[in-house]
Design goal:
Layout lengths: L1 H33 L11 E10 L8 E10 L4 H10 L14 E6 L4 E2 L9 E2 L12 E11 L9
Antiparallel strand pairs: 1-2, 2-6, 3-6, 4-5
Length: about 160
C-alpha cells in the first residue's frame, strides 16, 4: 500500500514540474515582451500589433529563445526608431542584471516578418492581413536566447 501511495505521489510531482516549467517560461516571456511598452514613443508612432514567442527559434540543439516585437506605423525614419530602441533599458529575459544585446528595427514589407532571429517559426501580423501598402510599418524586435529548456518541449 505504501509503494502505491509513493508511486502516485511521485507521479503527481513529476506532472506538476512538467506543467510548471512552461508556465514559468511564459511568465519570463511576458516580462521580457512588456519592456517594449516602456519605450517612450513620439506621438506619431502608433502601435499596431504585438508578437511574442518562446521556443526554439534559431540555431541547432536544445535551447529556449525569447522573441518579442511590436509592429508600429509611423512617419518617423527608421534611424529614429533604432535610436529609441537602443537607448531603452531593456534587459535579458533570464538575467535582469544584463542589458539585452539583440535588438533590431525592420521595415515591414508583408504581413509575415522575416528576421535573423527566427529560423524555425513564422511571425504573422494579423493587423496587416488585408493591408496592401506597407509604407511606414516597422517591427521593433528584441531577442534573447540560449537558455536551458529543462522540460519545456518548445526548446527541443
Amino acid at each position: 500500500m505504501n509503494k502505491t501511495i509513493l508511486g502516485i505521489l511521485v507521479f503527481f510531482i513529476v506532472i506538476g514540474v512538467v506543467c510548471y516549467v512552461p508556465i514559468y517560461h511564459n511568465v519570463q516571456l511576458n516580462k521580457f515582451a512588456n519592456q517594449l511598452d516602456d519605450i517612450d514613443f513620439p506621438e506619431d508612432v502608433e502601435i499596431v500589433d504585438r508578437v511574442k514567442i518562446c521556443g526554439k527559434l534559431a540555431g541547432n540543439g536544445n535551447a529556449l529563445d525569447y522573441f518579442a516585437c511590436v509592429l508600429v506605423q509611423t512617419s518617423e525614419e527608421q534611424a529614429v526608431l533604432e535610436r529609441l530602441l537602443n537607448e531603452s533599458d531593456i534587459v535579458q529575459a533570464g538575467n535582469s542584471d544584463k542589458v539585452c544585446r539583440y535588438r533590431e528595427v525592420v521595415p515591414v514589407h508583408a504581413a509575415s516578418l522575416e528576421s535573423r532571429f527566427i529560423e524555425h517559426e513564422t511571425v504573422e501580423f494579423e493587423a496587416l492581413e488585408k493591408e496592401t501598402s506597407f509604407l511606414g510599418y516597422y517591427a521593433l524586435i528584441i531577442y534573447d536566447g540560449g537558455y536551458e529548456p529543462l522540460w519545456d518541449l518548445r526548446g527541443h
